[in-house]
Specification:
Umud Fragment, subunit A; about 325 residues; mainly beta; 2 domains; Jelly Rolls; five-stranded antiparallel β-sheet; 1 helix
């Protein structure tokens, strides 16, 4: 929170009703096993969601909910040559002073940008999702929700692996790289059920953090199964392990394919609002899921026999 709060300064924190908080207020909140005192930049009282950032920071924190807020920082103690001075950090005047300083900083950056605009370059990126057209296909889809706050959902990175598992070794591990802001990790699992029709995914973890199951579906003949799991705000990092553990495995080998995809710009409160599944022997195979402009749909395919999966018209 520098320069507003310096290291070693004592903060005065009081209990607060979240309905009274305003943009520019400094709150103390729990962030997993850590505590942070950061300034509020965005508030959604209806959903009980808040965005905060340190004054010297360039990236916002993960979305904070009402239960995480422990109190409002109302003052700090400054040590001036051995004399302690209490400096207020809340109130309308303090907020106005902060926003005025931000406006001055933005104006200065804009002026510098106008001067340096001749050396800027612009990159264009395409977004993509996985698709398939095949016979004997099983398809599950997730609808990833973006909002005006988080902007367009965008593709970050993808990792995949296929292997055989057994009841004695029921896990699949792959390393995945995650970056960006307002992240969402989606893991799709495709299982060949022929050796054991009761095979399912018991759990998925990323860097030891459990994911949540979004959708699972078996085809009518119990020969293939597709599941999709997700994690909001996964930690960033390079080659972080994803571990998929299966259950209900019978004797023999079970074919499994795991694909992990990270998206940025996803809503951190309600990233997935709809899912759908379908199976059949037709080509092309398809499934429809509710979506809107600015959203992205990602799907997982489980397929029998040795067919090639190709993207059909209308899908990237």
């Amino acid at each position: 929170m520098q320069p507003t709060i310096q290291d070693g300064e004592i903060l005065h924190v009081k209990p607060v009703s979240v309905e009274t908080l305003r943009k520019g207020d400094i709150v103390l909140f729990a962030d997993r096993s850590n505590y942070k005192a950061h300034r509020l930049l965005w508030i959604d009282w209806k959903q009980g969601a808040f965005l905060a950032r340190g004054d010297a920071g360039t990236m916002t924190d993960n979305v904070v909910d009402t239960a995480q807020i422990l109190g409002q920082v109302v003052a700090k103690e400054e040590n001036l040559g051995g004399q302690i001075r209490v400096v207020p950090l809340n109130g309308r005047r303090v907020r106005l002073r902060f926003f005025a300083s931000r406006l001055r900083a933005r104006t200065a950056r804009f002026v510098r940008g106008r001067v340096l605009r001749s050396v800027r370059v612009r990159g264009f990126f395409r977004k993509s999702v996985f698709g398939a057209s095949s016979s004997l296909a099983l398809l599950t889809c997730l609808f990833l929700w973006s909002s005006m706050l988080f902007g367009q959902v965008a593709f970050d990175s993808v990792t995949s692996v296929g292997q055989r598992v057994t009841s004695a070794a029921p896990t699949v591990t792959l390393n995945h790289t995650t970056a960006g802001t307002n992240r969402l990790l989606v893991v799709g699992v495709s299982i060949n059920l022929t050796p054991s029709t009761g095979a399912t995914v018991a759990g998925v973890t990323y860097s030891g953090i459990p994911l949540t199951q979004a959708v699972a579906h078996n085809d009518a003949g119990n020969t293939r199964r597709a599941e999709m799991w997700y994690l909001v705000a996964p930690p960033t990092g390079t080659n972080v392990p994803i571990v998929v553990t299966l259950a209900g495995l019978a004797a023999g080998n079970q074919g499994v394919v795991v694909g992990a995809t990270t998206f940025t710009g996803a809503d951190q409160i309600l990233p997935i609002r709809a899912s759908a599944s379908a199976d059949g022997a037709a080509s092309p195979s398809s499934v429809s899921v509710t979506s809107a402009a600015g959203d992205m749909v990602v799907d997982t395919l489980a397929m029998g026999r040795n067919f090639n999966a190709n993207v059909a018209a209308g899908q990237t």
